[in-house]
Amino acid sequence: MAYETIMVEVEDEVALIRLNRPEALNALNSTLLTELGEALTEADRNDKIRCIVLTGSEKAFAAGADIKEMAEKSYVDVYTEDLFGASIEPMMRLRKPIIAAVSGYALGGGCELAMMCDFIICAENAKFGQPEINLGVVAGIGGTQRLTRFVGKAKAMDMNLTGRFMDAAEAERSGLVSRVVPTPKLIPEALSAARKIAEKSTVATRTVKESVNRAYETTLREGLLFERRAFHALFATEDQKEGMAAFLEKREAQFRDR
Ligand code: CAA
């Protein structure tokens, strides 16, 4: 499908979705959010895609929600259209693993979009921030909630109250990103991680997603019970038999998502 504000390439069972509004540092306007939602829904439906990488340009993953589009809206406008609530639904529904590959600015909605992915790999030039405070508002799609869970209260308060940016080293130290790589290596590294995930049983990778996400939604006791039951349930799959047999026979497992 041809899009105006994103580009999608599929290779080796991995979809690479690139935000593409260079004139606005990939600011998230309504067209981009609609197109991204369509691309994610299609990728989740397409059997030939087993993992997704979401990226931007070298200068910006995304510099936030589109300020030009929002500036004149009233409370009634944004409340009535539930601004950003509906547009992030496809990301919330996504069952396939998705990696954010962040280079340059990931600010406001850009940082929040990266945090909605399963994990973030970033380039050495990455800058994360929740600068909405400078616009007289606050983060609207997770900047006070997900960020606090990822980096803790002190840094989340600091970032949201001062609007300062966090560089790649601090982001890795704080647990916001899983890896930092030299800027030119970002896409190869993210694609390689995605291909590794694509080799696994999708029944197991989806279960990992559900189980790790459950850790943010419930108590430790409930989460541990959920995890144990999920572990038990995977013994009903052919992929568990194949994975364990392959280990014992000292060969590569051939998973069939059964
Ligand atoms: N919305 C709309 N346009 C944006 C934008 C945004 N969030 N961020 C950058 N742009 C546009 C600029 O207006 C500029 O366009 P023009 O050339 O037409 O003027 C172009 O992108 C390039 O930007 P700059 O000239 O500002 O580039 P820079 O290198 O000097 O600065 C920057 C880069 C520090 C990222 C700066 O652009 C900036 O501060 N952007 C805004 C960041 C921000 O406040 N994000 C939060 C948005 S609110 C939000 O996201 C709410 C939410 O939680 C959902």
TrEMBL record:
Swiss-Prot/TrEMBL catalytic activity: a (3S)-3-hydroxyacyl-CoA = a (2E)-enoyl-CoA + H2O; a 4-saturated-(3S)-3-hydroxyacyl-CoA = a (3E)-enoyl-CoA + H2O
Classification via InterPro entries: ClpP/crotonase-like_dom_sf, Enoyl-CoA_hyd/isom_CS, Enoyl-CoA_hydra/iso, Enoyl-CoA_hydra_C
CDD domains: crotonase-like (cd06558)
Biological process (GO), any one: fatty acid beta-oxidation
EC nos: 4.2.1.17
This protein's record includes keyword Cell membrane: no
Cited PROSITE patterns: ENOYL_COA_HYDRATASE
Coiled-coil annotated spans: none
Keywords: Fatty acid metabolism, Lipid metabolism, Lyase
Family: Belongs to the enoyl-CoA hydratase/isomerase family.
PANTHER family, per the entry: ENOYL-COA HYDRATASE, MITOCHONDRIAL, ENOYL-COA HYDRATASE-RELATED
UniProt-recorded name of the protein: enoyl-CoA hydratase
Organism listed in the record: Paracoccus homiensis
